[in-house]
Amino acid sequence: MKIHEHLILILMEEATEVAQAASKVLRFGPNDSHDGRTNAERLKIEFNDLLAIIIMINNHCDLNIVRDEELLLQKTSRLNSIMNYSKRQGFIDVDID
């Protein structure tokens, strides 16, 4: 296995761990704790693990995974539209900016 393949596999694993930690925040609440850490703390840890592997990928692979303000704005706009739709359907109970 080449290093870029190995690092991309780790990226996939870390992304899954972020999803699992986020799920526990929703299911049990951010302040619920297990093994001395709250779900919010676990989410923060997993998110930073994901960032660490992205840094390693950028250092060792021919990829440039970086923050892109235009892409962030586009995604934020799409998410706001989707959340406004959910609000109109009665699934979100607060106003979306």
The number of helical segments is: 3
- Profile the largest sheet: 2 strands, antiparallel
Order of helices and strands: HEEHH
For this structure, the quaternary state is single chain
Write down the Rg: 17 Å
| Beta fraction | under 5%
Helix content range of the residues, please?
over 70%
Category from helices, strands and their pairing: mainly alpha
| Whole-number mean pLDDT | 95
Separation of termini? 46 Å
The poorly predicted ranges are none
| Global outline | flat
Query: What strand line-up does the widest sheet have?
Result: 1-2
Question: Can you give me a brief rundown of this structure?
Answer:
The protein has helices at residues 3-28, 39-60, 69-88; strands at 33-34, 37-38. The chain is 70% helix and 4% strand.
Polypeptide structure, described:
- It is a single chain.
- By secondary structure, the chain is mainly alpha-helical.
- The chain is 70% helix and 4% strand.
- It has three helices and two strands.
- A two-stranded antiparallel ribbon has the order 1-2.
- Helix 1 (3-28) runs antiparallel to helix 2.
- The longest helix is centred in the N-terminal third of the chain and has 26 residues, at 3-28.
- The model has no long low-confidence stretch (mean pLDDT 95).
